[in-house]
Amino acid sequence: MAAAARAALPRPHLSLFSSSHRSPHLSLTPSSAPRLRSGAATSPALQQHHQVTTRLGDVIEAQQFDRDALNEIFEVAREMEAVERGSHGAPSRVLEGYLMATLFYEPSTRTRLSFEAAMRRLGGEVLTTENAREFSSAAKGETLEDTIRTVEGYSDIIVLRHFESGAARKAADTANIPVINAGDGPGQHPTQALLDVYTIKREIGTLDGIKLGLVGDLANGRTVRSLAYLIAKYQNIKIYFVSPDVVKMKDDIKNYLNSKGVEWEESSDLLEVASKCDVIYQTRIQKERFGERIDLYEAARGKYIMDKKVLDVLPKHAVIMHPLPRLDEITVEVDSDPRAAYFRQAKNGLYIRMALLKLLLVGH
Amino acid sequence: MAAAARAALPRPHLSLFSSSHRSPHLSLTPSSAPRLRSGAATSPALQQHHQVTTRLGDVIEAQQFDRDALNEIFEVAREMEAVERGSHGAPSRVLEGYLMATLFYEPSTRTRLSFEAAMRRLGGEVLTTENAREFSSAAKGETLEDTIRTVEGYSDIIVLRHFESGAARKAADTANIPVINAGDGPGQHPTQALLDVYTIKREIGTLDGIKLGLVGDLANGRTVRSLAYLIAKYQNIKIYFVSPDVVKMKDDIKNYLNSKGVEWEESSDLLEVASKCDVIYQTRIQKERFGERIDLYEAARGKYIMDKKVLDVLPKHAVIMHPLPRLDEITVEVDSDPRAAYFRQAKNGLYIRMALLKLLLVGH
Amino acid sequence: MAAAARAALPRPHLSLFSSSHRSPHLSLTPSSAPRLRSGAATSPALQQHHQVTTRLGDVIEAQQFDRDALNEIFEVAREMEAVERGSHGAPSRVLEGYLMATLFYEPSTRTRLSFEAAMRRLGGEVLTTENAREFSSAAKGETLEDTIRTVEGYSDIIVLRHFESGAARKAADTANIPVINAGDGPGQHPTQALLDVYTIKREIGTLDGIKLGLVGDLANGRTVRSLAYLIAKYQNIKIYFVSPDVVKMKDDIKNYLNSKGVEWEESSDLLEVASKCDVIYQTRIQKERFGERIDLYEAARGKYIMDKKVLDVLPKHAVIMHPLPRLDEITVEVDSDPRAAYFRQAKNGLYIRMALLKLLLVGH
């Protein structure tokens, strides 16, 4: 949400932007920034001051959340389970009269659906643009900024999916309404990271002290990288990286974990790792990453499969997660095991997105 | 709706599935199966027992409905006319808080629109996926079952359109929420068959004893085949098949009608058939079925046209139906004749779908 | 909305069409036609009488509105600003229970979004068809008329975007519910013209007596042509045409303005024109109009750019408008100037569409 842009809104324009957009209790700020109080949002001077350091009211990247913010989001997400259960008898009207625009420059039906379901479960309404690429078409050459300035006139919050890293930040810098990053290219997918951490907390009961095995494509998987960033905010975490050599976790994440004092270890023995983990997070090996080296893909792909043998050694209290979609890296026989958490994880995406929409639009 | 899948849902997962999903009064079961009472739905043991024999709460194929079920659906459909008329002054809230996902693996705007209108006319909400093929993309290789398990977490009922015969049944076996088949490839399109039979009843006043002329492409038309299956449940039906030789009704339907004691006859004289029928059901000759034999298509196509000459011999009380879209197999001059029922038939699709959504989600 | 078609609706069909569709106070008729009173709508005889001369209840072309009609629309549009501001605390229910179908035969996300937002801000619901071309596909060969007759059964108003000039009129002649033209090929885009004129009134305070500079592609721009038609309804208008030679305003518009006594002048000096105008309306030079003559395009494109130099001479009270999307014909430095009205103009599209939907569905 752009402060400068708002200060520049000229005369007869009636501000879209009421103080109800801002929650004084909302702590979704980077930890280094002071919390803004509701009144502050109407002061251009103060906004100018914070323009660079805060993104209050936008969800752009996993790292922006401190533990307090995460706790608040997870608390609200938990409340959302009851809200959803009450949908038929006493549907929520919390976001009645609010309009969410899903501005998707690349298709992601799964993510879009869960955002739209979240908005509806809270009584809000949705404007859908599945092929926004055409909207501000390359042919016509409209900038993302111009598109945002148009769409913000028609809605109360924008959920942006874009093919370019950094697009969400750019949109948020332009918009006078909140922006949620629903994935920007190889960049971030913060709501996925949030739902992953929420799922661990919901399944295991705690985050501090957990042992987490990350399995599969650790080099290219946006998901596991964001998860590593976010989990590093907790205490006494131990991470095991289990992946074929060609798709090993990259040094930037390892260095980041080191700097945060998070213990990590690489292993090629899935069974041994599984036997001591609280959470095994499996990912898909993405064929498209291997180009013409189909042989490498085939070798990598079959190497670490989650099957009955893994279940046999996995602790009773542990869970198996996966961002979905899956191919055969988790066999179907695993699905009926109570420790298979991946469909519950997908469902948690609904609760997390409900929580974010509520927090961004009306506060806690 | 899968019984086994539900029994397997593990611990912290809160059931999506409340008894309100089940109506004790709903008789949409195959006639051979005992009705389940509401309470039964929460008993995994009982569910296991019924898993194979019942599809309570799913609409998969025309044959699943017995006469009692059809009567109930038609009765509710009739009530829906009043509900729709009241939309502006006193809109229905019957499905308030319910969310329908239209999961369309191939486009069918007409069918999708009428389902979405039906949901809205009852106060419900809609999640739209027009290109679900991309959703669980062949490239990514997700199974239909996995997609269903994700989408059921975001919605209360799934309307599935798929390119593969049997897909609807597979989805219903997986889902813990009701599934409606909105056409699965060359397979079934049960809501079309229901609206066709409802239209006959609504226009003629009765189904027993009617004389029905099926005209056009009887070999490939999913519509006329399903209609034949469904009409066979009534008494003293007489069916005339009028079609070019290359697209004659196939033996499986003829044998089925024989086994049910339904009289049928083939004829090449449309005028003679029209003069003694209560209902003429015209269909489009589909060019794509003829491959490179354009000559056969052209010959077939022009052979049986519904025009002023047919109107002249058609009984005053009779009606002309067509599943739409039409080309020139019914001439435009017919449209203004009161016996032209095809646009009323399309409208009945709304009422039938409203009735099904109400029956599946909250019961009668 | 077709009168003849309605008269022909046969027996068991329950009219979709209640007197609430018709507002006795609504003056959206060509000025030559008498106003219809509410009761009239139920009389087939009277409808027949008016069939050709009135399009009461449809929005087809800019010229259909007289000054009284424009005043009424603008008055309601102004009220809509307050309705929108109240969305969060006290959302409007004015169109509760009404269903709008957006039938788009070519994509136009911007226009579609603003219509859908308008409907939602008034409490109404939306059925979306983004690729209606497939709906009544060329392959299947359904006529627009048949499509309209189906869709009108599922909705209360149709917003049509089509690639063929005249399609909106054809649809309105068929439909028994109101039709709004959201652009039909090279034909009309009346809601854009309305929002343009509304923006001038809203920004400048008056329409009579304004000096208006039309800049850019005046030959191909549907927008500037429609605006010229509409502005001619006001008094003492002076229009300056500023465009590269290859895309000059065509004679038909010049002759029309002459016949209406509107003063106009051609100029190649943007700065001089800007220095004496109340409104500068800039448009995009469309590359696709130049075919292979990229050289002509490049020359035309760079010729008249709205930048700091133009701002320096532009009167303080004046405004810069643009139908969007823009390329570089307005530089980004202009955006922060209070006289840059184009994003407010886009926003006015919401208010105008809210006003039209309200007027067509429930009246003032």
TrEMBL record, chains A, B, C:
Residue ranges of the region described as Disordered: 15-47
Stored Pfam families: OTCace, OTCace_N
GO molecular function terms listed in the Swiss-Prot or TrEMBL record: amino acid binding; aspartate carbamoyltransferase activity
Organism: Zea mays (Maize)
Lineage of origin: Eukaryota, Viridiplantae, Streptophyta, Embryophyta, Tracheophyta
Domain named Aspartate/ornithine carbamoyltransferase Asp/Orn-binding: residues: 208-359
Ranges of compositional bias, category Polar residues: 16-32
NCBIfam families in UniProt: asp_carb_tr (TIGR00670), PRK00856.1 (NF002032)
Keywords carried by this UniProt record: Allosteric enzyme, Pyrimidine biosynthesis, Transferase
Coiled-coil region list: none
Gene3D superfamilies the UniProt entry points to: Aspartate/ornithine carbamoyltransferase (3.40.50.1370)
Protein name: aspartate carbamoyltransferase
Pathway: Pyrimidine metabolism; UMP biosynthesis via de novo pathway; (S)-dihydroorotate from bicarbonate: step 2/3
Top-tier EC class: transferase
One GO-annotated biological process of the protein: 'de novo' pyrimidine nucleobase biosynthetic process
Function: Catalyzes the condensation of carbamoyl phosphate and aspartate to form carbamoyl aspartate and inorganic phosphate, the committed step in the de novo pyrimidine nucleotide biosynthesis pathway.
Source superkingdom: Eukaryota
Quaternary structure, from the entry: Homotrimer.
Domain named Aspartate/ornithine carbamoyltransferase carbamoyl-P binding: residues: 58-201
Catalytic activity: carbamoyl phosphate + L-aspartate = N-carbamoyl-L-aspartate + phosphate + H(+)
